[in-house]
Write a structure and sequence with these properties.
Elements (H helix, E strand, L loop, with lengths): L1 E7 L3 E8 L4 E9 L13 E2 L1 H18 L5 E6 L5 E3 L9 E2 L16 H7 L3 H6 L9 H10 L8 E3 L1 H10 L4 E3 L7 E2 L4 E2 L1 H6 L9 E3 L6 E5 L2 E5 L3 E2 H8 L6 E6 L3 E7 L8 E4 L5 E8 L2 H11 L1 H5 L7 H10 L7 E3 L12 E3 L8 H23 L7 E5 L1 H5 L1 H10 L4 E3 L5 H4 L2 H6 L7
Parallel strand pairs: 1-5, 5-14, 5-15, 9-12, 16-22, 22-23
Antiparallel strand pairs: 1-2, 2-3, 4-7, 6-8, 10-11, 13-14, 16-17, 17-19, 18-19, 20-21
Length: 440
């Protein structure tokens, strides 16, 4: 049996044919995610819903040609960000991306939207919400709209994935709980209406919450009918795609980075808590500096050749070679070049006339990354509640020194995950379990 899988990511909208019998992904097709709307104020990151929808439909149409026998469409999508629609799915707003930074702009008194929003909630309410509050989170963006008196009455907040699937099915938007980060009361598993009321969001029409195994409609394309399931969170899809188990600590090292662990019950800690599947939870710390920060270093090192009109095709290969045998020689590199779980004060220090080399610089960066994973794991649980690591992501596979440094800090067996299509792989269990009754 084959199904279609759709991943509405922030870099690309990607689809594939999912074979349920072999658990394989094939016939991958992509459309780039649309560029942000031009001419916006600094820090704003909005994207046209129509552009997103058009490209998602193009992916689905191309997939249908690869699997004429498929009758099911499964989806995951980027979490964070928000858009508002009316009862006929007509957008009131663009898609306000999770990359949007408008809520970090300080007023004349030095406070930001984020500061004011956090001040509206008690520590207990914040804990109920999973301690989930980022500049591009749904609640922070909705609160900004409310403060600017740009919140239409009776509007429905939806994720970009929920909008695409609801429009495809010509139905009302419904949200799977893994998409509701920072909006659910994790103790009751429903919308946190008291938290919404405290920040002036109680006038919104919140979508119905649903379960990943409950079909939400059908889409008819080119004489084909596909049963659609709700969009699940892309982080959870990726972690399920690597078959993360509750006794494992996940360390994912790619453009961004994260540490995560599944918990059977709501267990607040010094971290974010998100819904997992079957009534479980995910303790996680996201936005740990990784590939995006390393790219800053690579861009600096290749700037002079670029200015001279010379393109170094194999810059990362040369960096790998240089870092392989370096020892750092006292050089330190804090990769917190962006607001992150480790702060926002990136720096290079301990420089001498002898140690500032490419190899030592990246050796120091890898030391910082490995230290960050250890620090963040202790925030999840001061004493390890795992007996194995699941390490995934392209960077840890590309840089053996980074892998060795992680191994040195965690005295546990390591399960290396080489899977490249984690999010799409994480959709397969939805179809496999779709004929079973959801857990209560």
């Amino acid at each position: 049996m084959r199904c279609l899988g759709l991943d509405i990511g922030s870099s690309s909208i990607k689809g594939a044919v999912l074979d349920l019998e072999t658990s394989r992904v094939s016939n991958i097709v992509r459309e780039s995610f649309p560029d942000p709307v031009a001419g916006m104020p600094p820090g704003f990151h909005e994207v046209s819903p129509e552009e997103i929808f058009t490209r998602a439909v193009n992916v689905i149409d191309r997939l249908c040609g690869h699997a004429p026998d498929a009758t099911t469409l499964l989806s995951c999508g980027q979490m964070g960000g928000i858009m508002l629609v009316d009862q006929k799915l007509r957008p009131f707003t663009n898609y306000l991306s999770w990359r949007d930074q408008r809520t970090t702009v300080a007023d004349t008194d030095g406070t930001t939207t984020m500061d004011r929003l956090r001040g509206c909630w008690s520590d207990a309410v914040f804990e109920d919400l999973g301690k989930e509050l980022k500049p591009g989170s749904a609640t922070s963006l909705l609160y900004w709209l409310a403060q600017q008196q740009q919140l239409p009455a009776d509007a429905t907040p939806v994720t970009v994935g929920d909008y695409v699937i609801a429009r495809l099915c010509n139905g009302v938007p419904r949200m799977e709980r893994t998409q509701g980060i920072g909006m659910l009361n994790l103790r009751t598993n429903g919308w946190h209406h008291a938290a919404f009321a405290a920040v002036g969001l109680d006038g919104l029409r919140w979508p119905e919450l649903t379960h990943e195994r409950e079909p939400i409609g059908s889409v008819h394309r080119n004489g084909r009918t596909l049963t659609c399931y709700p969009v699940i969170g892309d982080q959870q899809a990726a972690l399920r795609g690597i078959r993360l188990q509750s006794h494992e600590l996940s360390i994912n090292v790619s453009t961004g980075s994260q540490v995560s662990q599944i918990t059977a019950e709501f267990r607040p800690a010094e971290c974010q808590t998100r819904p997992w599947f079957d009534g479980q939870f995910l303790n996680t710390i996201t936005h740990i500096p990784a590939g995006r920060a390393l790219t800053v270093l690579e861009a600096l090192l290749t700037e002079l050749p670029r200015l001279a009109g010379i393109k170094i095709e194999n810059s990362w290969q040369l960096i790998q070679q240089a870092a392989h045998s370096s020892t750092g020689q006292g050089l330190s590199c804090d990769l917190s070049f962006f607001a992150s779980a480790m702060g926002c004060d990136g720096r290079i220090s301990g420089i001498t006339t002898d140690n500032l080399t490419i190899g030592n610089l990246f050796h120091a960066a890898f030391e910082f990354m490995a230290d960050s994973y250890l620090t963040c794991s202790r925030r999840l649980s001061p004493g390890p509640t795992w007996d194995q690591l699941a390490i995934s992501g392209g960077l840890v596979q590309a840089f053996a020194p980074l892998r060795r440094k992680i191994e040195a800090r965690f005295p546990f067996p390591i399960r290396d995950v080489a899977e490249q299509e984690e999010t799409l792989m994480g959709l397969i269990p939805v179809a496999v379990m779709g004929t079973t009754e959801p857990d209560p």
